[in-house]
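Dear colleagues,

As part of the handover before I leave the project, I'm documenting each prediction I ran so the next person doesn't have to rerun anything. This entry is a single chain, and its sequence is reproduced below.
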Amino acid sequence: MKAVCWYGANDVRVENVPDPTILNPRDAILKITSATICGSDLHIYDGYIPTMKAGDIIGHEFMGEVVDVGREVKKLKKGDRVVVSSIIGCGQCHYCQQQKWSLCDNSNPNGWIHDKLFGFGTAGIFGYSHAFGGYAGAFAEYIRVPFADYGAVQVPEGIPDEKILPLSDAFPTGYMGAEMCNISPGDTVAVWGAGPVGLFAMKSAYMLGAERVIAIDRVPERLQMAQEFANAETINYEEISAGDALKEMTGGRGADACIDAVGLEAHGMGLEGFYDEAKQAVRLETDRPHVLREMILACRKGGILSIMGVYSGFVDKIPMGAAMNKALTWKMGQMFGQKYMPMLLDRVLNNEVDPSRVFTHRLPLEEAKQGFEMFKHKKDNCVKVLLKP
């Protein structure tokens, strides 16, 4: 089959690789009908995610048709149309039973790597390095889905892939980010990053009862989509300090909750931005924490920081004194996809939200490299790229 393989920073290639096979009786094999480049895929593309190996198949946001199942798969059969969570969960451990799927004890065969880095192992993720299990990813014609009864959600025929595909990752990630804000009526929620996850976080904040949602970005077309898709007010941080603007917009109080939908490649301004880029380039810090710093200062006293942007390792110059003295609550994590997917699917089927609106470009799998470049550099007003094997 054809698949997109990683060979280093900014080097992905479409190659012929062996088809996947059933390795465990709880596996299913999927023929992928659509996949999409996620913002966190850019961290791999840019070379910032450790434990990648040359030739690894990447991609984790996908859907398709079941073409084979292991003997212990009970809920799926050949021919089923499904969308699959990017997070792999066993369904049986303490964390899966608590609906905290990204903390699964059993789905990451390389959990020992996380033991050393994080203190405990976390779940496997499709196509996202050997630290997250070394699973083959979704930018391919076929994929093996472990623990298929728990990760794959059946979807009806007749509804376009574009409306369903974001349920694999971007939509539940944004929803979880908003849910962690403990939104009360009248709240103002500020979202850093108007990419796909940020847009879904904005939409979800309104679903959960926010009175105002404010989008912070620097790309005009993304800010425009935040207005049109999510009904958000906007701040262009290249034109005005986000913190100053938020104070002015909230009568000096600050946002009740702040969501980081950017992660480890955040763009800072001036000396701070240069400092982070220089330290990251020589690996004196792995991640650029500009958004974290800005949220700590911009959030109101007693507010909540919700962190859904991916961080891989270590950051510095975090104003912990401000966070502590302002009594801020921090919530964060890889998304609990299986918890939210059925509910969000119902909302899509009931026409409460149309996730397909975030897609701006559609490309064949063979043009994945062009898709990465377009998405990375925000060319041609790109917000999200759909890939068709």
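The longest helix spans residues 337-349. The chain has a mean pLDDT of 97.

All the best with the project,
I.
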